């Protein structure tokens, strides 16, 4: 399933580790704290557990949103939409 991971994490160390886990799971960074990609249910659960171990539940916020391909194609992108430093052709292809 297509999955978005968005976060607001106070600790630099935890934030860096969460980004590393997202990349290792095969997600693509589309903004500084936003990742997008395709995960199966097991990998999504694994990523969730890894992130839960890293964050402070009293101060940090993490959102993991599953989305169908049709819903992704219906997404409205305004302005620059993705940070060009991060986005890959594979992410752009998801919107086609």
- The tally of domains stands at 1
CATH architectural label: 2-Layer Sandwich
What is the radius of gyration computed over CA atoms, rounded to a whole number of angstroms? 13 Å
CATH class: Alpha Beta
Cα shape: globular
List SSEs in N-to-C order.
Answer: EHEEHEHH
Helix content: 25-40%
The biggest sheet, with number of strands, parallel, antiparallel or mixed sense and barrel status, is: 4 strands, antiparallel
Distance from N terminus to C terminus (CA atoms, Å) equals: 16 Å
Sheet/helix structural class? alpha+beta
If strands are numbered along the chain, what order do they take across the biggest sheet? 2-3-1-4
Strand proportion: 15-25%
Q: Detail the poorly predicted runs.
A: none
CATH topology: Alpha-Beta Plaits
Number of helices: 4
Number of strands: 4
């Amino acid at each position: 399933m297509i999955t978005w991971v968005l976060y607001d994490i106070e600790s630099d160390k935890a934030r860096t580790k969460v980004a590393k886990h997202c990349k290792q799971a095969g997600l693509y960074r589309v903004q500084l704290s936003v990742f997008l990609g395709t995960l199966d249910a097991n990998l999504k659960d694994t990523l969730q557990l890894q992130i839960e171990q890293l964050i402070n539940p009293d101060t940090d916020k993490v959102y993991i949103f599953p989305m169908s391909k049709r819903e992704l194609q219906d997404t409205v992108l305004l302005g620059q939409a993705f940070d060009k430093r991060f986005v890959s052709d594979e992410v752009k292809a998801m919107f086609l």
